[in-house]
Records
---
Amino acid sequence: MTHTHAPTSKRGKLVDLRNFPGFNPTAWFVLFFLYSPLVYVVIYSFNSSRIGAVWESFSVKWYGKVFENDDIQRALKNSLQVGFVATLLSTILAVMAALGLLRMKRAGKAVAIALIGAPLIIAEIVLAVGTLGLFIAVGVPLGKIGLMVAHTAFCIPFALLPIRARLSQLDMAPFEAASDLGANERQILRRITLPLLAPAIFAGSLLAFAISIDDFITSFFVAGPGATTLPVYIFGMIRSTVTPEVNAISTLLLLFSGSVLIGSYLIQRKRR
Amino acid sequence: MTATTSTPKSDSKQLEHRARPGQSSPKLAYLPIIFLAFAIGVPLLIIVIYSFLEKPSQGTGVKWVFTTENYKALFIQQKLDGTTALDTRYIKVLWTSFIYSLITTIVTLILSVPVAMWIATRDARRRTLLVALVTLPFWISILIRTYGMRQIIADEGPIGKFLSLFDIDWSILYSPPATILGLIYVFLPFMILPIYASAERFDFRLAEAAYDLGAKKLTVVRKIILPSIRPGIISGVALVFIPALGSFLQSDMLGGGKTNMVANVIANNFGQARNWPFGSALAVLLIVLTLLFILIIQGVSQRRGDKVELV
Amino acid sequence: MSEKFLEIRNIVKVYPTPEGGEVRALDDVSLDIAAGEFFILLGPSGCGKTTLLRSIAGLEYPDSGEIVLLGDRIDDKPPYERPVNTVFQSYALFPHMTVGENIAFGLEMEKIEKDEVAKRVVEALAQVKLSGYENRLPSQISGGQQQRVALARALAKKPKVLLLDEPLSALDLKLRRGMQVELKRLQRETGITFVFVTHDQEEAMSMGDRIAVFSEGKIVQLDTPVNVYRRPINAYVADFIGETNLIEGTVVASGISLPGGNILPTNQLAEDSVVPDSGKVTVAIRPEDLVIATDGIIGGTVRDVIFTGDSVRVYVTVGDTEVIASLASYGTQIPAQGSHVTLNPENRAARTVAS
């Protein structure tokens, strides 16, 4: 909002026109509401008792269990492998799409935007079962490769977000100047466009990575045995046991996603 | 007269350099489009096709026989004695999903407007911090957020324990209110952020002019501020209602595994129930409903002249 | 007769309007620019001057017409194949490159060797009096300095023609005046043909060798600053350049009958004035060419008197028009507000102009 100085009443007391009744407590309540489950998960990951809900004493033993658990390690490895590949591919495809869309004709552009935006609009369950059907019909083995393909597809719109935002901010003049100074389209792309987009591309890749790591529904349906990712494993754990071990892994996952996202946010803010 | 030389150029190259500098060739987008046609377009196509096929007698998959039975089965049930009767199960599921999403949308809307406006009226430094605080949960795994909520509202969770001090029974988990609560929790940031984006752009001097003309605070909110953040509200409604309609985890983890939302029934049919064609029909229905609601929301916003962009 | 340098022939550029019609940004424009000239394209916004400049650069493509540089057609070539460079209004410096890298960019496109590039960068910076600024980023230097870097970047390529698109419009007055002198000096030193777009007629007159005055896509007058000022071809040019009183009069036997009843004799008009046999005619007189005289030709009541330091401006109501006289402040008797005065044009400075 544009900020002007709050006016004072005749008696000189500051009359606060910017605070509306009830908004302040509502806001604090909502913030509390948003974070208390997460805080609970973190705190109770340090609960030494096996029964999750009852606090016994402070302990890090569940974290120890997490690191000893082979299944978890395997699931983590799968998540990271799928994540890295999906991030790399989706970011490259997102950059190509972002640049190519600038000059696409209306018909092609509409199709492209529909395909790119589909994962954002259509419920994930639909695409997940459709992808399952696709892989089985085509004969793709249900494993990490299939997962990488599926993840790449829904990561593209997320990688695209910061890139398109940055593209729309870019001023036309430096590109005209580059052409005026002798650069053809390829040289402009290499020396002007990509360097100017670099922070946004990086931010997009971080977003894509976080989305891939956190994905559940598609990973649940499309992965076969041996391609279990971390969220799928956690889901299975929640279904069966209710030990604080689940909280421990959840906390770790939380920390990881959180730092990746904070990193993306800081990068987007730095290069102004 | 000096002769003028013209550089020989093929037609396509001439067209190429007539575009603005810095706008790369549209051909760059071909690869992503082809990939997505395969990875997104074909799965959707398969769903549509499968919805018109028969279920095989054994195992999963489909039998390549055309039928419209799956769509009929959404409303009609074949009884064992051969008669047909109205099957309200799936209608109930659709209705339930609709109601849950509606409640979620309304509650998040009521909570988000004050929060968004409050953040927008703080000073610059606190604003960035607050926005970051609201944004972070938005990006954290829905699985973990739902699981955290489950632990809090569990019978023996902190709320239950607190209320038992007053001898109040707390047993909300594995019931519709729990699912709705989970939906509200997960989708709250989806409503706050677009409304905040609108609120941030609001020129507070308009409110000051209203005050100057004699309006009291609530009137200013109602008649000046709310109308100008309408685009944000419409975005938020779209970003909550439509995904909530197709949500899976909240009903599964908090509703007690009773398949009472559309996504759960679809998942079930592709899992235990092994009825891919029927699940596909339901999925097609969900897609159609999604597109329908998007068109409605776009229609509402366009009629009043707002511009709402989802991607 | 020297060979032609930059010929612009019959350029037409049409844009569609949202209502479905079209607007002619350039309406059959032709002109010849000589080598080594400081040439000005002058006019209000929307008159086509910038469109013409961008057409020479290759950033716009005319619908018809030709642009020929030293005998070669360049209007069908992309910008990067024309020996023409532009200084943009917004400077358009590459934000992710240092000053030195910005200047080197154009040279690298010509595949010049690294050592040579470095040498030319240093030369270019010296030319614009920014030696030592190689490693600064555009965000770290002032607007005036950015403008000079934009200039150096274009000049480093030693183009045949340098195009400048209102480069001084963002600078404050003092800075602008200083840069005007700098640009004239640079142009003389380098000998490069400058084509300069501006809407500021004072700027145009102080810098240009020749000025093309634009109006609605057409060139209205093309001449040296002196001639454009002293001999405006019509009321538009007379009014756009400097200040002019435009007085409607009627042709009579001995001259022109002006409002107020008096007659301006024909032999008092400028020599090259065209006077029709009869009917209405517009007389243009600049305020500084009017003096207060007893029994002067133009008579009226003083509405206002404003003292501006080096001159006194007297606003006289004559009939239903207003005439402004600009008098030297020293040695002139300043008339009182409301008094009746008569004015005379000096030195045959009054002229008829087409409306």
---
Amino acid sequence: MIRFVATRLARSLMTILAVMTFAFVVLRLSGDPAKVMLGPDTPREAVDAFRQQWGLGQPIWAQYFHYLGAIFSGDFGMSMRDKSPALQLVLERLPATLIVTVPALILQVTIGVSAGVFAALHRGSIVDRGVIVLSILGFTIPSFVMGLLLVLVFAVTLHWLPSGGSGTWAHAILPVITISVGWIGSLARFSRSATIEVMGQPYIRTAMAKGVHWSDVVWRHALPNAATPIVTLVGFMVGSLVAGAVVTETIFSWPGMGRLLISSVANRDLAVVQCIMLLVAAMMVCTNLIVDLLYGWLDPRLNARHEN
Amino acid sequence: MNAILNAENLVRVYRARRGPFAKVHPIRAVDGVSLNVAAGETLGIVGESGCGKSTLGRMLLGLDPAHEGRVLFDGTPLPPLGTAAWRRSRAEIQMVWQDPLAAMDRRLCVAEQIREPLDIHVIGTARERQDRIEELMGAVGLRKDQASAFPHELSGGQRQRVVIARALATAPKLLICDEPVSALDVSIQAQIINLLRDLQLGMGLGMVFISHDLNVVRNLVDRVAVMYMGRIVEEGPTEAVFFEPEHPYTKALISSIPAPGRLLDPDLIITGDPPDPANRPKGCAFHPRCSAATEQCRHDAPQLRPTAQKRTAACHLVGTSTQSATT
Amino acid sequence: MSIVSPGKRKNVLPLSVGLSLVWLALMLFLAFFADLLKPYDITTMDLASRLAPPLSSGHWLGTDELGRDVLSRLLQSIRVSLFIAFGATLISAAFGTTVGFLAARFGGWVEQLVVLMADFQAALPFLIMSLAVLAFFGTSMWLLVVLMGFYGWERYARIARGLALSANAQGYAAATVQLGATPSRVYLRHILPNVASTLIVSMTLSFPDIVLMESGLSFLGLGVQLPETSLGNMVGFGRDYLTTAPWIVLSPAVIIMLTTLAISLAGDWLRDTLDPTLN
């Protein structure tokens, strides 16, 4: 088990390093980093000071280590527009993004998985058919279209909810729904097929033949086994949550990290872009690591294999 | 002797490593094996898992080159693997595999599977190939309407029939079967064994039949060779070996076959685990598990010597005359 | 590819798949002949009739805020979006398959490198990575196609590597060699067709994803740039007029949805016909 954890940890660190290297290379390739990070109308002395600070005159491998050191100490450069440290800017916007993404994640997982499992256990019923149809709709309608439709219906036509901005919790409702809808559909479909497959396994029939109560069969035998493939989806989900946040915050003018990213890309405020990219990567790597460890713990077959 | 196949002192060594930091162990998977198969004769090769019989089968085909020794087919040495001559020789030597599903390209239907060797070796016209396919399908017991079925739509027994039909398409002189019925149900095993026997009689094929299942082997082969840790420890006509086994290993194997109404003889039950090929015991490879082992057995490896009419055994305790122990 | 023997069962074409194929054929036709079909140039402005609703005179789908004909822009958008998606899918498949075969053939550090690249891809949501690249290098059509071309290559790589490895010692490749086939016969007639059908199915899976990805980027203003137009682009610019002139947003949105649905349905059916073992 220790070996498994250690190798996974090592791989995660390698990945983060790869992302940082990627950022470094891309930054160098896109032009003189000083000009790029500081903007065209920065005074000469500031540019020179920056060059000094970042060691831009030195050979490339020295710059690389300098860069890594800067990142690890939290220095991602200065935002061109705001003239404040990029990290600080990003962290300021982080809570707003969390307010929409975390509820979305909870909603996705609870509604999606339970709908799927329910549909699997009641095959052929209305719920089952409904789940299938809704899930197809869910992954066909892109999130930006969904967001606009929701605005059209709930804000413009019904006037129940505001169409954008932030301030009250009512402002957060549509963004949360927009982010979660697509994944509710996918999770429902996936949970449904995972549960169906597990229920068809011989050990379920054995349990029932032994006289185990139906609910025990479901809760103690079927679901823990169905959980494993579902857990692997979690990694993808978290990644797409971030992507979903970007689009949704734009539609609803929600002042989160996603909108900051878009405006930074449009303005070529590369320090901020780099900062967000690295933070997101770090978060994803951690999530994938946790998912892998969880997966290894849940499925004893994998444990045994890794112990050899 | 009109032997279709001669194997002389075949040796094949694998270099295996326990872990990335352990020493490299050479493992002698096949360690000096010689055998002959005559036209129209079936030779069985039996042994436990890991004794090297599958490797030996591949060496007889030429799929695994021999590190020492050589294989003669119809009097001439086998061409090296990968040459055009080797490919041509496939029309004469064919193989029946253990897992028929894995041995077939899943995209091709039955007729296409059987047709492939005919296409490769350019045998006959299109019409003639079609006729041959029908003839072969009938010979192995497949129905005509199964010609368009796919491997995954057939049962295990039917798949193996397809593999056999495919192997026989070019009318080979030698057929090597590596555990062809191990993956099948017992009732189907009997059918396939009977099929192989009928085909062999009808076509005058030489056959090598590799198996770990003694019951299966007994019903099919003319002569049997028993393998242990890469070497042949006993060889002879089937009934003789089964009725009066000479080598202690053979005795134990045969006595372990369950027979209704007869209790197993506790003295002959083999003790211990199958050996680790990387850790070969000194002297006779079987001595740690042999209840009759002597001091000599611990130091000298016995050679395969003739013990009776057409029989050989590799054991210090078996003499060339009457000292063969009977059960 | 697969050799059909006489008397083989014909697969019945379900209605939904038939409709999907018809729709896709229509989209391809429109994309090809967009130049001939569009009534106006995409930049022509009819300032007298701005924000005209559909079926107004001279404008089947109405006009946008600058008086540009929506139908013309829609046809051009279909062409641009499909072109990007096709190009990207092909690049992704070619790159992924090659990398997968190399990993299977050489193993060792080549394989480790590929695993690292795949891990890297998994660490960054594709949207975020695309945004970063676009920020650093600016937005050009070719960059966009190449960028989209990195979407989903891991899937092809994994398939190609898996199939190449499994067609060895115990598999049909070895059996075919034992039948006497030359290596080229083994590759061309057996391994490649087996890989191809799975690859094509994978391509139909990632094609709609790429369409959605490009639409998303264009919607955000960072994909296809003016004066060129794409489906996502149109939705993005039409956003401000959602209440006053919803047709500007709805027409490209409907096209996106129906096209991705059609590809998904057709792709599932294609998988069932090409690969008789999966059902």
